Amino acid sequence: MMLNGALDAIAARMAQAFPALKTCEVHAGRFDADELARISARVPALFVSCLGFQKVTNAGTEQADADAALAVFVLLGSTPGLPRDVAARNMVEALVVLIQNERWGLSGCGEAREIRAENLYGGKIDAQGVALWAVSWRQVLRLGAPCFDESGTMPSHLYLGIDPDIGPDHVDDYLEVT
Fold first, then answer.
1. Full-prediction pTM beyond 0.90?
2. Side by side, which strands form the sheet with 113-119?
3. What is the pLDDT of residues 118-144, one digit of tens each?
4. Alpha-carbon span 71 to 7, nearest angstrom
5. What CA–CA distance (Å, rounded) separates 141 from 67?
6. 66 neighbors 140 (Cβ within 8 angstroms)
7. Helix axes 84-99 and 3-17, enclosed angle (nearest 10)
8. Torsion sign over Cα 148, 153, 155, 161
9. By CB neighbour count within 10 A (0-12 exposed, 13-18 middle, 19+ buried), where does 62 fall?
10. What distance in Å separates the CA atoms of residue 101 and residue 70, rounded to the nearest whole number?
């Protein structure tokens, strides 16, 4: 499994769980108040990010197991009848329940653990008309795609499929990577 694939799977699962989101995507890192002006029009939003690795160990193959620090940033504005701070706390609660023990449908992915939520409220953030929270967790990810299949044979062709157009019904949609 590759790191980017894990982040994409997490964002896809969250988008599925919360279909009313305007934005649910992978983000490069942490948020600061200056960045909010650029993205605050895209609320309600979730931004998934890898914040780094605490420990990387040899998996006994050409792969590594990385204890990843992952986060989803919750960015919400007010809606009629629901202030943004209340909406944000509701979303954070739902995310904590969703994330616990989750593996995102991926092999080579440990269970989500050590979930934390942090309110990132501040004057500059409040002035943007949004509430910002970070829900973070730790998860072991198996990094590096294996070079050989189960029989020890190196593949002769590599194909790329883009979710959700994957699987046997979409073989014609795959692109050969050269």
1. no
2. 23-26, 45-58, 64-77, 130-143, 113-119
3. 999 998 888 889 999 999 999 999 998
4. 10
5. 6
6. yes
7. 120
8. negative
9. exposed
10. 14
